[in-house]
Structure formats: structure tokens, C-alpha cells
Write a structure and sequence with these properties.
Radius of gyration: 13 Å
Strand order of the largest sheet: 1-2-4-3
CATH class: Alpha Beta
Order of helices and strands: HEHEHEE
Shape: globular
Strand content: 15-25%
Number of helices: 3
Number of strands: 4
CATH topology: Translation Initiation Factor IF3
CATH architecture: 2-Layer Sandwich
């Protein structure tokens, strides 16, 4: 759970080095996309998505929808890039340590 701006800044710095692993096109948010993002976020804790120019929906709306359906948090939406984070439930499997 992101509790403060320091943690959000830390996650944004990590996301800066990531390449988007999903592209969202004109069909926008599909059940298959949500399933794939859920699997990826459970494995990685943080994922970056790219909204293609042929998608008519607003990236912020897409981010809210996907975050709600995957039970993750929006780190930020910058232009057509979305970064989502979900902390692993098991402390042994956590890959990202958030600052206090």
C-alpha cells in the first residue's frame, strides 16, 4: 500500500527504467487484458502499460478500471503510460521494498 509521496516517488523511479509490457488498443479493457495484468502484477509487483493512440478512452479512466479490477494501485499516469503497483502478500516474495 502506497502511504506517502516518498513511496510513490520510489515506485516512479523504478517504473522509469521499465518498458511497457502491455499495449491497450481500441478494444480498451477486456477480461483477457485484466487477467494478463493480474498475472503480471502478482509476479512483478509493478507493471507499466501503454495506451495506443487508436484507443479512444482516456488513459486515466483505463488506469482506474484496471486498478480496481486487479486490486492494485495507480502509481501514476503520464501521457499514454500507466504504472500500477500491488505489494505481494507474502513478505518473502516481495521484490520491492518501499521506504518508510
Amino acid at each position: 500500500m502506497i502511504e506517502n509521496s516518498k513511496q510513490r516517488a520510489h515506485l516512479r523511479a523504478i517504473a522509469n527504467t521499465l518498458e511497457p509490457i502491455f499495449q491497450i488498443g481500441k478494444s480498451a479493457v477486456t477480461p483477457e487484458l485484466v487477467t494478463a495484468v493480474t498475472d503480471a502484477i502478482n509476479a512483478r509487483e509493478i507493471v507499466k502499460l501503454s495506451v495506443l493512440s487508436n484507443c479512444m478512452e482516456d488513459p486515466a479512466t483505463i488506469a482506474e478500471t484496471i486498478a480496481q479490477r486487479t486490486r492494485s494501485e495507480i502509481v501514476h499516469v503520464m501521457g499514454r503510460k500507466i504504472v500500477l503497483y500491488k505489494q505481494a502478500k507474502d513478505p518473502q516474495k516481495r521484490k520491492i521494498e518501499l521506504p518508510k
